[in-house]
TrEMBL record:
Listed PROSITE patterns: RESPONSE_REGULATORY (PS50110)
Pfam family, one: Response_reg
Name recorded for this polypeptide: Signal transduction response regulator, receiver region domain protein
Entry-linked Gene3D superfamilies: 3.40.50.2300
Organism (species): mine drainage metagenome
């Protein structure tokens, strides 16, 4: 099965690709909503993992368009976000979609596996067919077998009703004319009145003709659909998949509602610790904790934040994810103050390897302890604040920032000597 990944960050694309391959599926990558829509028209994808924030549209709009695609419609898209504020708002505005925190890898993997399990259930349970003609029944059975679907044939309505009470079926096909009388119409309310093991099932009337009056009477009697016995295999397959997807969507919605209820019950247990973190450390610590920062990243925030006017942001030009994140944060916001950390051995900003102490040149930098806290205390003396106004050219700002940092770095070395 193929899962469409719509994500602007190459870093997260690689993460989602790894998760999807871990559950035995094939990822199809797209960097924007329009690219995803174009891919969906040519590459059949069963489900999708969509970033809530895209360069050309939001994730919910992308999901809606993918589901409405006339060709290769995507089923049950999963939307991920890195902004807890937008996550809560999106969940309230679009309750029919599952929207999760992109840091929760376990939940994302579980949700994708659930979708794969549901899609693998197609074709669904056996189909029950009522027809008093052996020839017509065998003809219909042959076409269903070619689709890999089991069809149970019964000659009389009484036998069919008994079978419905004992076994689970995905749907019921009923001939209009049974035993030379139009008893197919009268059978519909009897099926509806029964409590079936598999729950309510669609009832479809079939006929050798395609008479408008028969079609009208079938719908008035409560039929879900009307088929011609001469329908092609392709038409039968499309109709069966439509009913199976509708049924599985209902099952998925029930599971999602159960999960959301469980999360609401657990929310009071997490709200108090979050409130204490907000009280003790302020908004910046609460936010980075909520977004899952830990270890090296959290230590960096702890050192840089006291020198920032708002909250510290780690700028690393080699990682496009941070550039993308800054773009999203900057949209519609007042000028932000960013803290940049200087590298002591080269112009520009510290790389993740340098920050973690795993860079080959780390041992030659200084005599400070080779721990994040010891190094960060040294780097904090060389942090620089840069205000980036809304609407500015980020690439130009970063290029200019690198030059400024290089000059400041040289001056810092001169003063330290």
């Amino acid at each position: 099965m193929k899962i469409l990944v719509v994500e602007g960050s190459r870093l997260y694309q690689l993460n989602w690709e790894k998760i999807i391959r871990a559950i035995g599926q094939e990822p199809v990558l797209a960097a924007s909503g329009q690219e995803a829509l174009a891919l969906a028209r040519s590459v059949p994808c069963d489900s999708a993992l969509i970033a809530y924030t895209l360069s050309d549209m939001d994730g919910v709009t992308c999901a809606e368009k993918l589901q409405q695609s006339p060709l290769n419609a995507v089923h049950w898209p999963l939307i991920v976000t890195s902004n807890p504020d937008s996550w809560g708002l999106a969940l309230m505005q679009h309750p029919r979609y599952e929207i999760v925190d992109r840091q929760d890898r376990h939940r994302i993997s579980t949700a994708l596996a659930e979708r794969v399990g549901i899609l693998r259930s197609l074709p669904p349970l056996p189909v029950l067919y009522i027809d008093d003609s052996q020839v017509a029944a065998q003809h219909m059975k042959n076409r269903f077998e070619r689709l890999g679907i089991t069809l149970h044939h019964f000659f009389t309505p009484g036998d069919a009703l008994l079978a419905l009470q004992k076994s689970a079926y995905s749907l019921v096909l009923c001939d209009i004319f049974i035993e030379d009388t139009q008893t197919g119409y009268a059978l519909i309310p009897k099926i509806r009145a029964q409590t079936l093991p598999s729950g309510p099932v669609p009832v479809i009337m079939v006929s050798g003709g395609n008479d408008d009056d028969q079609r009208r009477r079938a719908f008035m009697a409560g039929a879900d659909d009307f088929w011609s016995k001469s329908a092609s295999i392709e038409e039968i397959q499309a109709r069966l998949q439509r009913y199976a997807l509708a049924r599985n969507s209902h099952n998925l919605i029930q599971r999602l509602e159960t999960r959301l209820l469980s999360e609401r019950l657990l929310e009071p247990q997490t709200r108090l610790p979050n409130a204490r973190a907000f009280r003790d450390y302020g908004y910046w610590r609460f936010r980075v904790g909520f977004e899952g920062y830990s270890g090296i990243q959290l230590a960096l925030f702890e050192v840089l934040n006291p020198t920032a006017e708002d909250e510290a942001v780690w700028l690393d030009l080699s990682n496009p994810e941070f550039v993308t994140r800054i773009r999203h944060w900057q949209a519609g916001l007042p000028p932000r103050t960013f803290c940049a950390c200087l590298s002591p051995r080269r112009f520009g900003l510290l790389s993740p390897a340098e920050l973690s102490g795993t860079h080959p040149l780390h041992a030659a930098w200084d005599d400070l302890p080779r721990t994040p806290s010891g190094s960060f205390a040294h780097w904090a003396l060389r942090s620089v604040q840069v205000a980036v106004p809304p609407g500015s050219d980020f690439e130009a700002q970063f290029t200019s920032l690198e030059r400024e940092l290089g000059a400041i770095e040289e001056e810092a070395f001169r003063l330290l000597k």
